[in-house]
Amino acid sequence: MTEHVLYRQDGGIVTLTLNAPERRNPISERGMVDAIIDALERIDADPSVRAAILTGAGTAFSSGGDLRAMQDATAARAAAPAATPAYYRHGIQRIPLAFERLNVPIIAAVNGPAIGAGLDLACMCDIRIAAESARFAESFVKVGIIAGDGGAWLLPRLVGFSKAAEMALTGDPLSAAEALACGLVSRVVADTELLAAAGALAARIAVNPPHAVRMTKRLLLEGRNMRMDSLLEMAAAMQALVHATGDHREAVAAFLEKRPPRFSGE
């Protein structure tokens, strides 16, 4: 069987590639779900990984759900609707929860269409860079369903409620330029430059002290839901930890001595 997700590490940077290009990289099937989660857990458990990139093989980032598989399951779902929530809980809904647990920064390199759950997958990443050929659509209404994978939680936090409502209620696609204008992506580059641009950004992250990077990401994630006083308490506790690291001492010494720092992850 073809490997669902390709895992490649170059120094401190891991690139994950959704690897079903002939079907435009759908993520709804159990094999792909398991492969994505396994890759994220592998990244998080490896202290040598400083940053990650997620992209798609072929001409699409991800088509989201497999419509043919969805059509084949229509009768069974209609006959036993009470079974569908468990199907989602034990299937695709595990992906956003795995991203929520991930402390390593991850960049979506959106190399083509990111449709439905594919758009939501990009939204699960911390940063999104788009190729000029990328297209984005929260298109669930177009096939008569809703976002069952967290899109209604993710998208408004990135583009605001009004734009998220427009995207979700119309299902209409955005071009890469339109995605940039509404803040869905932070940069648009030529198709041929996408992975290089994502790699350069990952390298800018990876050069920093890894404990501080992972804790900074965790604070950003938790800050979406916490009160200010609770977040300050969490930040103070984390600060006690990073103040005790060798990399903190090295960073201060290098700054004062006007030399490049040499971080060891200690």
What are the defining features of this structure?
266 residues; 2-enoyl-CoA Hydratase, Chain A, domain 1; Lyase 2-enoyl-coa Hydratase, Chain  A, domain 2; 2 domains; six-stranded mixed beta sheet; 13 helices; 15% strand
Plain-language structure description:
It is a single chain. The protein has about 270 residues and is of the alpha/beta class. It folds into two domains: about 5-205, 2-enoyl-CoA Hydratase, Chain A, domain 1; about 210-255, Lyase 2-enoyl-coa Hydratase, Chain  A, domain 2 (Orthogonal Bundle), CATH 1.10.12. Helices cover about 50% and strands about 15% of the residues. The chain is built from 13 helices and nine strands. The chain has helices at about 30-45, 65-70, 75-80, 85-90, 95-100, 115-125, 150-160, 160-170, 175-180, 195-205, 210-220, 230-245, 245-255; strands at about 5-10, 15-20, 50-55, 105-110, 115, 125-130, 135, 175, 185-190. Strands 1-2-3-4-6-9 form a six-stranded mixed sheet, with helices on both faces. A three-stranded mixed sheet has the order 5-7-8. β1 and β2 (about 15-20) form a beta hairpin. The longest helix is centred in the N-terminal third of the chain and has 16 residues, at about 30-45. The radius of gyration is 20 Å and the shape is globular.
Low-confidence stretches: none
Sheet with most strands: 6 strands, mixed
CATH T-level topology of the largest domain: 2-enoyl-CoA Hydratase, Chain A, domain 1
Distance between the ends: 40 Å
- In terms of structural class, how would the helical and strand content be classed? alpha/beta
Q: What is the top-level CATH class of the largest domain?
A: Alpha Beta
What CATH architecture label of the largest domain applies?
Alpha-Beta Complex
| Apparent shape | globular
Average of the residue pLDDT scores: 95
